[in-house]
Write the structure tokens for this entry.
Amino acid sequence: MRSLALLSAVAAATLAGCIDEAAPSTEPAAPNQLRDDGKADGGAPLWAGLTSVTIERSADDPCNHGARALGDDPITYDDWARQRAGVRNICFEVWSPGVTDVDNPDFWRLLDVQVHYRLAGGAWQTDYVASNGRRYNNRRYQWSLDFALDPIANAHSLVGVGAPLEILSEGNGWARVARELEVYFTVNGRVLNSPANRAFVVRYEGQARTPSLAPQAGGYVLGDIVTCGAGALRVGWGAGFFAVDVRDASAVAALGAGLDGSLIYGAPVARSGDLLSTVFSSQTTDAGQTLPSYRDAGGARVTPTGSSMRVELDVYDRAAGTIRTLGTTFTGCERVAN
């Protein structure tokens, strides 16, 4: 029985890509995923690999013992992962003789392990990756797919998801979209990425608002707070929200250019003839300004500069696959006495 147990233990260590405690100078049997020659620090051996991903409701190990290998295929992060998963980690192991195969309290000084990540099309960000302990002669590292990384869960509209994105389906004021996060790691400056020598990919999928507003012939402003240019722009309070009514023909054409369906607006916008309306969730006061400003988290702003006010609407351009801003500046603005 003891022989069977010993064989099982050796087999488990081999499957895990770890090395025998009695042979600390032997590199793990699993492929070394570090790029270039896999050496660092003056030619000393350095190995990293056994990349895995764990997206589970729960697990007795933060890396689920490497049960789900991470390779070239994207990690799908969908509504189930967003709402139900309690464990969301990317893990990998590092081996360096004399550093990871002994209880070395200074391992963190000798192994500079970092993560580099970006939403596709964005700027790279960098952070350190913490080790969650030793596995035989390797040291294991864990990077959490934190909720703050999710571009869909943290967006107030499709525009807030950002671009590039993929629209999977649309209907009833919502769209199902996908956006990708690119991730790779470095160990003492050596790149650890997918077997195809490219960044790992987390594919976020989920629902995003595509807000709309019903056309209303009289507009949405019930009481004026600011007016500009003899009524070209009215900003005021509506039925439980702040509202903007635009009556200048050129401004209506500019701000309403995508209401033919070519653009998806981040905030609700409606056009009724020569009248364009939108609504806002908050009113604030900008430093140094006497006129108020307005913001909608979906992607709209009214910003004062002296006696001028600029109306901006963020939109997703279907043809170009980009986020851009429509804007018009109004002059001769003044606050209405209440």
